[in-house]
Specification:
Elements (H helix, E strand, L loop, with lengths): L1 H16 L3 E4 L2 E4 L4 H48 L23
């Protein structure tokens, strides 16, 4: 219900900004300032695309940071347990036989 009301208010506001005129004799509908609502809609669309992209960028960066922290924790734990020096991100290849074949299960 709120969405329908919001859409109706938005359409009415855009028609008002575009200076909608309706005449009945002869019947005609004109929108002499059509470029104003089009500009507003394009601006709104560009801001929506920008914010979605920034949100996805933040999620990706947070995920990558989390993966790196987990890898560092595993490296630290394994080096304490097994007294080895681990270098690089592919440290699990030598520990498990299925890791080098790419089999996950």
């Amino acid at each position: 219900m709120k969405t329908i009301l919001f859409m109706a208010i938005t359409i009415i506001a855009l028609l008002y900004i575009g200076e909608l005129t309706i005449t009945f004799k002869p019947f005609s509908i004109s929108l002499p300032g059509w470029y104003k609502p089009v500009g507003i809609l394009l601006f709104w669309l560009s801001m929506a695309v920008y914010t979605i992209g920034e949100k996805n960028k933040g999620y990706k960066q947070g995920f990558d940071d989390g993966v790196n922290k987990c890898i560092e924790y595993i490296k630290k734990t394994m080096s304490k347990l097994y007294k080895v020096n681990i270098v690089g991100k592919s440290f699990l290849i030598g520990w498990f036989s299925h890791a080098e074949n790419g089999i996950t299960n």
